[in-house]
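Final report, Chapter 2: Outcomes

The project's central promise was a pipeline that accepts a single protein chain and returns its three-dimensional structure in a standardized token representation, suitable for archiving and comparison. That pipeline is now operational. To close this chapter, we reproduce one record exactly as it appears in the project archive, with the input sequence first and the structure output second.
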Amino acid sequence: MTKQKRADLLLVLVTAFWGVSYFLMDLCLTDLPPLTLNAFRFLVAFVLLGGVFFQKMKGISRQTLQYSLLVGVFLTAVYVCCTYGVLYTSISNAGFICALPAATTPVLNFFITGQKPGRRLTLCILLCTVGLALLTLNEAFRPALGDVICMGVALFYALDLIFTEKAVSQPQVDALQMGILELGVVGVIMLVLSLLLEQPRLPSTPGIWASALFLALFCTGFAFVVQTVQQQYTTASHVGLIFTLEPLFSAIVAYFLADEVLTVRGYVGAALMMSSLILMELLPSKEKSEQN
């Protein structure tokens, strides 16, 4: 097996973990407050990765620390929106809506850097928007509260991606150190917020313990390390296309484990969103390079 094929398979596994995470979050939220769950998830992942990569965490530059703090704040907002969104909407809807950063990032990038998206990318964004409307709007043409909250993921994760790209392009920034440190930043912020706004507690049953640890170890710790390390062995197009499978995995898990079934309109909307994301990743190299 070539390094690229192995990397692609590992990234598919990461995407599957992220798809499963929506069901696990929904399960954990029956016992843990949202901010407490996120604090547990990210602090455990940070301690684990910090221990495994202890030797590589020496000599952290000021630039790495600064960008870790900035990106950590955006990542905190992402997971606050994601967790509260899952609390108030279906697992399937959350999975599809939280995949929107693939379409919203070029839009925000245009406003921040002035880089205009190409025609086909604009078409992808329109398809994704129509699909989102079909998936989330009810008969009264109003999205559920959880759907609106999940849309915050699209905004804050797009900002996360834009500033992460800017950070890792600088020679003074170590990508692995930054990836681990931002987990610690998220964990600390979540812990402080949970102490102020909630009554923090540990899981009360073996099932919730198992779900929370799986979120921390595999959906957060393992996923971040694999994404960082394996991207050097495959192409950005492969990675982007693989990550569009996340909402598909979340819908499959929701169907088999949570008995969630979308309406016909919901399936059409989800199909449009998936089509737009895949079409975007199949953009010709020249057109994609104009977005970077």
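Archive annotation: The chain has 13 helices and no strands.
This record, like all others produced under the grant, will remain available to the consortium after the project formally closes.
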